[in-house]
Please model this.
Amino acid sequence: MLNETPRRSTIRLTRRGRVALMATGAVVAATAVAVPLALAGGDDGRPTALTIPEGWRSGQIYDAVDKALELPAGTTKKAVPKAGLKLPGDAGGNPEGYLFPATYPLTDKSTPQSVLSYMVNTANKKYGGGAKTTAGADRDAMNLYQTVTIASIVEAEADNAQDMGKVARVIYNRLEHGMPLQMDSTINYALGRSTLATSDKDTKLDSPYNTYARMGLPPSPIGNPGEQALKAAISPAQGDWLYFVTVKPGDTRFTADFAEQQRNVAEFNKNQAKAAG
Model:
């Protein structure tokens, strides 16, 4: 098992587990994640339900509620402080991670406050069933808020649901080894974007969400995880992995050996070059 992090100029972990060697100068084109707003309508054309996908950030959800309730942009975000949301103290009034992804009914009496409260109450019910702490990290149990934070990173990084448990284990292993998480998904959150391309300049970002420059978990969840990601954070797979890379869709490789990771990354870069050529 590796106890030290290779130099940042050599290796980096990227969103959804895709890794690029900085030393190779490989460039990955930026892509935005676009999920259409799902609204179910009644006979009169008014929305009767709003579906929130797994992994959406609070800003996306605020915009979706505004659209569903036919309100001016920014209305739902402004309603958060006065919504009386039942959030943990660690959240500091920030509902990120507690706007649970699900389908919510809408009526002519729905308001931003009522819809957000429904989401947070759903999260509290989902999270309350045995998820108060997790011994995913062998030495130090995580509290619920930290577990939700890890689940949000898993949601953003895992290439598929089957790999979520392994991604969670990588996070715990890196924390246990005193290694920075080096997750591009946390930088993307700080910058309000979704991309596969993270520059060396990005990794120097002055932000508590920069898990290249700062040790430990980011100060809050970076999205709103679904049940599978939460389950992975509570009960991660067993393994000594410290690195992962999605060489191609459906082929994510996990390892504890840096040299093996370099070989996997070289194959990833080769595949990217072919796709771009």
Q: What stands out?
A: The chain has a mean pLDDT of 83. Residues 258-276 form the longest helix (19 residues).
